[in-house]
Write a structure and sequence with these properties.
Length: 465
């Protein structure tokens, strides 16, 4: 039975993040010597699902390439001169296409895979899917299915990280109400989920559904980054569809907040709907976690008439209330309804010491997180499960204290930069059982000089209505 110090299930951007954090901290070599296994369903590491979205990133080019930095030259730092990296780095504080981001993360995954495979105690298990994890003495036993051999195998690990990404479960959709009626019942077969719409095929499907309509109408239910991304994609990525005034409506419950890099620039644009509680006390950024960024930010500013942006009459906002006849009418009249309700963690079936399935907190309610503020997976009673960590899309990690963020933030912070830095470091430190000195700045290796020296920031893909 293969035995690892650390086993990561899911080799997407979330699964790579603790390794990139260790790389930045100069601890990756040590960790790999102890033994790291990665179980990934597909045939490669790094990209996960991010490159499949036909939209631009809401984090900057710089936040992606920052993960290459480390004190020592490695396979990863060498990527700094790769043309894909340079294309992404050239975007600076601007957006990049998620397809490019996916290619870049695929390269990072390849480089990490080389480093892992060079270490006899470590292994990359692609085309393997984890089926369940059972708590045993000194850690976990994970049953995996090897797609190539068609065999089931059992792996042993002292520490286990779930980085299996997120999904948009239909059951979650079934609970969503518009007014006092079920969204599924009102929208019927006109209803799509944001994750499906934001792919190239998904946008083509929407274009086909709207073809020939003299005045096409789309209702988007959600106040998250995904909801704004859907609105942006509909308005700017469907050349065959012409929306009239109010053709797209965003129905939302939460306030639509705007990110500003600091208080002064918010005030300079007359943006005053924040207090000190909405400012990250570490970085001074306004709505660091809750604020829309880049393309979505511009669109929401336009439609809200903020910062002197030109109006965007094709998009209308509607604030959902309890008994909302107007919302019902908007959904009724829409040709297509898009639910942008966020993501839930996929996780993995977990079996306890006693051989009985162990329910997770995340399964007890639609807003419940998978992890606590130390990335530890929580059981149904909210207690951390020993040696089990979670990271990545929909894990529900909320930064606090030295990690920054505004104290008024509610939701999920789904940003790669955060996972590759502070969040990944939490896991690395716990797994190495030694507190690395926090805040030790990574010296920028010569090969990585194309990156700017000003500190980058993470983005938060905030999910929810
Ligand atoms: C529309 C959208 C736009 C986004 N834009 C940005 C952005 O601009 N910037 C940013 O920082 N973040 C962004 N994110 C958030 C986040 O970075 C991405 O969602 C990213 O893909 C999440 O990585 P992940 O590894 O958690 O999940 P995934 O990318 O889904 O990867 C999960 C991996 O786990 C594997 N897996 C799953 N289950 C198993 C199993 N049982 N056994 C083995 N392998 C398994 C999968 O094959 C996959 O490779 C965005 C998210 C969305 C939805």
């Amino acid at each position: 039975m293969q035995d690892f110090h650390l086993l990561i299930v899911g080799g997407g951007p979330g699964g790579m993040a603790p390794l990139l954090a260790a790389h930045r901290m100069g601890r990756l070599g040590h960790l790999l010597k102890l033994g790291v296994g990665i179980v990934e369903k597909t045939d490669s590491l790094g990209a996960g699902s991010i490159g499949g979205y036909a939209i631009n990133s809401d984090s900057s080019g710089r936040t992606f390439t920052d993960c290459l930095l480390s004190d020592e030259p490695t396979e990863v730092t060498r990527l700094a001169t790769h043309p894909v990296t340079q294309r992404i780095a050239a975007a600076g504080d601007g957006t990049v296409s998620l397809r490019d981001a996916g290619s870049f993360l695929g390269l990072v995954g390849e480089a990490l895979a080389c480093m892992i495979q060079d270490e006899p105690a470590s292994a990359v298990l692609t085309r393997h899917s984890a089926q369940k994890a059972t708590r045993v003495q000194n850690g976990w036993q994970v049953e995996v299915f090897d797609e190539l051999s068609g065999q089931h195998r059992v792996l042993q690990a002292r520490h286990l990280v779930l980085a299996t990404g997120g999904h948009q479960p239909v059951e979650r959709l079934a609970r969503e109400k518009v007014g006092d009626l079920s969204l599924v019942e009102i929208a019927g077969d006109r209803l799509l989920q944001s994750g499906d719409v934001l792919t190239t095929g998904g946008l083509e499907k929407v274009a086909a559904l709207l073809a020939g309509r003299p005045s096409p109408k789309v209702a988007i239910v959600g106040g998250s980054t995904s909801a704004a991304a859907v609105a942006h994609a509909l308005l700017f990525r469907l050349p065959s569809v012409t929306f009239a005034e109010g053709g797209v409506t965003l129905l939302h419950r939460r306030d639509l907040r705007i990110f500003y890099p600091d208080r002064a620039s918010a005030l300079a644009e007359g943006y005053t709907e924040w207090t000190e509680d909405d400012v990250c006390q570490i970085s001074g950024r306004v709505f660091r976690l809750a604020g829309f960024r880049l393309d979505s930010r511009e669109l929401i500013m336009q439609v809200r008439g903020l910062g002197g942006r030109p109006p965007e009459p094709r998009l209308r906002l509607h604030r959902l209330t309890a008994d909302d006849a107007a919302a019902r009418r908007i959904v009724d009249e829409a040709d297509v309804v898009v639910a942008a309700l966020g993501y839930r963690p996929r996780a993995l079936p977990i079996v306890g010491w006693d051989g009985a399935p162990l329910d997770l907190l995340a399964s007890t309610g639609p807003q419940m997180p998978l992890v606590d503020r130390e990335c530890r997976v929580l059981d149904a009673n909210g207690r951390p499960i020993s040696r089990l960590f979670g990271i990545g899309l929909a894990a529900g990690f909320v930064p606090s204290g030295p990690l920054g963020g505004e104290i008024t933030f509610r939701g999920q912070a789904n940003g790669l930069w955060l996972w590759q830095h502070d969040v990944g470091s939490l896991i690395v430190k716990a797994v190495l059982k030694k507190a690395d000195k926090p805040g030790r700045p990574a010296s920028r290796h010569a090969a990585a000089q194309i990156m700017s020296k000003t500190p980058v920031d993470f983005t938060a893909v905030v999910e929810g209505v």
